Records
---
Amino acid sequence: MSTESKSSIPTDSEIVFGILNNSENAIKRLYVAYFPMVMQLILNNNGTPDDAKDIYQEAIIVLYNKVKKGDFELNSKLKTFIYSVCRRLWLKRLSQMNRYGGDIHDFNDYLPVEDEVEEQGERDIQFTKMQSALQMLGEPCKTIIEDFYIHNRSMQEICESFGYTNADNAKTQKYKCLQRLKKLFFQQK
Amino acid sequence: MRDEQLIEAIERYLNGEMSAEERNAFEQLRRENAELDTRVVEHQQFTGLLKQYGERVALEKRLNAIHEEIDVHAIAEEVTMHPSWIVQLWRDHHSKISVAASIAIFAVLATLFFTGYLNNNNSYTELSREVGRLNRSTTDMKKDINAIKKGNRVIAAPDKSRGTGFAITSNGLIATSYHVISGADSIYIQDIAGRSFKVKAIYSDPQSDVAILKVIDTTFRGLGQIPYAFKHSESDLAENVFTFGFPQDSPVYGDGRLTSANGLNGDTLDYEISVPINPGNSGGPLLDSKGNVIGIVKAKETRLEGMHFALKSSYLINAIKNIPEDSLTKVPVLNTENSLANLTRQQQVKKIKPYVFMVKVY
């Protein structure tokens, strides 16, 4: 297609192995390669460049998770997969905004990807809850929890950076923070 | 074991920080204690979610960073189709346009429906006696042909339409409905005694359907004091009213009530009255119980029984004021003294009789 990026398009297996090996470059090349296609889809179906960005990034995340989980089979083209996910996500967004006019101008073949999109939607809900729970948790709890559970820092390091006199105090603090976070998380509907 | 220590133990277990001995003991405990097992699973799930959340945030950050480097605008330009602006306008707004159009159509139809335009307006019949024009014209032709055959001259063409009129001044100004005399070649009035006088229309107002005639016949000698007065103000609902006119060759009396201050479809020119009237009554006076003229009988709604209309007298008075001065020998002075007030209805009608005329239009 003439509208696609002129830079070399990475092969599908390059991308898949790149993702599996946490290659920054692979993700970047993937991103650059297919963004124009998604931009075209969204812009020509009542969307803005910002919509295109949101939808595209969500699709990349779907792909990323699928590859990481190991159940992405290379029997369909990456390009088709991304296009299908974006198409599905955009249809969903349009119907939420009541802007769906009943037809969508397609530029590619597409696959049925309802399951992937549905799964992603559920996970997004969990993440949104987690985000707001962390937000409500406040400092210093938020940082302690993030450092320990997300960034895998040791209690010793955390203890030092927060200036606790001994590790036990830090542990107690971390325990309390975690309990509060759970409470905040499960309180949300 | 306190909860805090329990969580710590679970974490150590999950992170593989326990010694083999400790681990075996913990697993043993876990098998035996279902509650502990649930706690382990719960904790694993929650911290797992936390971890995934962290990864997601990091990934989004990476993607955003990549996105920053892309020239979004250029790509957008490149991939956008550029249909003509009218197509674009339609594509963007066709749903709104369709909704607006349907609302407009609905509004027009509703307005037409409620104002009665969709009903067949022919049911509103003006009451001049246009008795079977077509029918008559064919008989006329027949007569003419016969007359020609016989070699006789046609003496008098029968009148085209008829109505009623009534005197407004003693020197021969007659009020009637405009539709009675519209399109007339010549107009005559005929009094109760059967005498005809030629008249001419000196003022007509199709809007309020009123016309003023003036007797121009040389044999006319004046009428004497008009017995009724003209009411300037509006009459009240349920006022007992009556009329007197020529739906047929002999005069016909009819009475009823003033049933509405407005005419057909809220027309403020008219009263609605329940007086039984017929073609030929048009142009007749409508009087109240005291004998004041409160209107001119005008029309009826044929689909609904008992809906008749009369022009309010104030419009008649306006019409009289508007008569061009050069048509008059002197300014008309309306009678203000009502000599009918205390009479019975029979006496009132008897007194009015000479002032009500059949209007014959040729």
---
Amino acid sequence: MLTSRSPDTPFVGSPDTLQVKVVEHPFSFRGSQNKQLNGLIVEAVNRMGGVGEDAEENYRRAVSALKRHADEALDIIAAEYETLPEDRYLDRWSLVQLLSDLRNPKAVKVLNRIIGTRIPPEKAKQSHDFSTVTEEVIIRTTAVEGVVRLSADDVVEARKVLLRYAGHRMFSIRRASVQGLMETGTDEDRKELRAKLKKAGQEGLLKIRRLDVQQVPQATGGRFLVHPDVKEELPPHNLGSEES
Amino acid sequence: MATCTYTVPDKNATGDNFYGAVICNQAYIDYFWNTYGFKGNKTYWDDGWGWDDCCNVNKPLARAFNGCYALTYSADDYLNDSYSSPILNWGRRYVRENIDNLRCFCGDGTAIARSKGGGLVEVYLGFFYTKDVPGRAETLIHESRHQGGKPHDANFPAGSTFGGGKSGADSSWGYEGAWMYGALYLWWYYAVGARTTSALRERARQRGNVVIDNAFATHPGFSI
């Protein structure tokens, strides 16, 4: 079928040009001479982004290997988090997620520090789809989730951290802390939390409920005409694995 | 014309090196190129963007293809893209029906992507290098919703991470705008995303929650 679009012919004028520099991984490991442990951290972060039927299994295996050196690993991960440039949001997030997945009680102190670190002013003020403050908040809510997991493991200090950040100035961090403490805290914790929220006029946070995705209104996608271009049948998802 | 440079870590959490090993297959390359708006736009994807090196995941085209793979295959039953199924299934259909031309530019750092109308979507450096692979799928869905006729219709609420009082928010969940589509896609990805890791699903949950908390003038009253 003919389309109204031109084929892949050059046009008058110049498109943008990109030059890419590749580095092995985003970390410096300036404070760690333990190459084996450094390698395990790189491997675990790398495996976070896995794809395929065995992606989760490979990631779990990488985290398990790291858990055998958890105490030293925590120190290295915390140091790397501090060393990474501020704008490496995804890389910073990956270290926080790793701290969360290690599920080690000693991580409370590091996660507490990450949540409590001042959020730098917005650097993308003209944008509506990218926000450095949003990236910073995602890092911190991920840290809150790490604390929630430790609270569920009966780490008392974790509950104190959640109670503290139920009063954080950023809404999402407050909301995540409140939900986490309500779900994993003791009756006494919940009572203390309610009192704190009442005093701050923040009781509305208790009404925001975690739901299953099937319980919320769904999007209606089929309101528009199908584009007339011919769309080929898609190939199966595992072509590479079939060939190997 | 602009010239830009970017330093890419070969091993980090974006997922690109793993997805890259999968998408380097002519069947996928042909399908994504012809289906998601690359076709007819070779000039844009040349000159360092990867047209002549489309399996190299350090370059944008392969990273865009990785996002297309996540968009296409993250539902367990991906062959079902009926609009009566979850958005995780039909997101790919919505994108292919609404994006005719997908073009890449350096950008000025103030946006990940922009919907230009008439089926044209522009993606900038942040799309390839600050977004993880499923995050790119979310962006394509967000921009497709604009192409589908839903502009943002409200200002961000007070205290929003996106900047309270700025335009660019959706009025409510029920408006079914671009933020709702993106958040709902992330929610389904978190809940039942296939062939991925718990870490990336958790990232989808965290991003989805922050969108729900900050991108609607009226908070929907629920979270992931």
---
Amino acid sequence: MPEVVTFYLLAGTAVVASALVIGQRNPMYSVMFLIVAFAALAGLYIQLDAPFVAVAQIIIYAGAIMVLFLFVVMLLNAPQEDTEHDVRMHPFAGPGPMRFGALLALGLAAELGWALTRTPSEAGSFAVTPVSSVAAIGRSLFTEYAFAFEVTSILILVAMVGAVVLARREEPR
Amino acid sequence: MVALDHYLILSGILFAIGAAGVFLRRNLITILLSIEIMLNAVNLTFVAFGRALGTADGQIIVFFVMTVAAAEAAVGLAIVIGLFRHHESLNPESFASLKW
């Protein structure tokens, strides 16, 4: 079963890389490991017969958003996290908010696992024929979702203007 | 054949890692990266469900989520740059001026 092998390989890569993103002290390494996780997820999208999403994942996430993150990390040049408030000792031994956060994450994971065990497993088999053609996605995008698509362009314009205004240096008058 | 359950469990694990990162880390950039992990976990759920139902809608929603993620990253990083200029720090504890 090569599919099962590739699934577990890619899933393991994604989980380990995501955990390393959280575990690194240097944001530069975090960004690098996140790119690894995104690559593994792109492989999973390919296995799910969604090549359009896989390619968009590589180009938009690994190519554009992560470059933006790396650019900011290098621009700010403050790689090390402050040590006095660090959770490296133990996540549950820290002050209240940290303990709350760790407990919340654990509860979320437990809840998700519980919800997944409640679903009948025969509903999870991929019996339907997949829709993987980019033409079908594009047709649906420009007919059924045309309004959302146009609103998205406004959103990007607003985000662009907002980013420029926020990051601009105040000029003395 | 890998079933839908496997993808959903993987997505849950990734979302939990992202949520843990948001609450445990003390670095604004790492917190933004954790938010990206959570968005990707949700994307995986959308694609897996779209594949299971045999529609293209899951992939289209992922397209919109990616666009919103790009806009969020751009504005969020601009705010981080602005905060760093004022306080010379990326620790969210140091941005407590509004706290009584």
